Amino acid sequence: MLGTGLGAVARFKLTNIFSQFHKKFIATFVVNIVGCLIAGCLLPFALSNWFSVTTLGFVVGFTTYSTFNNEASRLLLKKQNKLSLLYVFSSYLFGILLFLLGYLFTKTVVFN
Fold this sequence. Notes:
0% strand; globular
């Protein structure tokens, strides 16, 4: 629970900082793919101790897929169909790729 709360605070602060320079959905995109990278890096540790479970809670609080879905829907309602599809596709594509990259990095560097 502590990890989730800290993750939410980090997301809020990073989103506010990033939103000053870019549209809000770009800030959400960055937060979510960074969260995927962190989750991938932490996955090999997840079953080894409680600290990793707390840290994964941080990632859960940090990422915000409810906001992602809201922003994608708003883009569609504003008739920005191409931008909405690009946002959805790139969020999932980069999220999966960065998760795998983080996982492989940790498995190769830390556990080898």
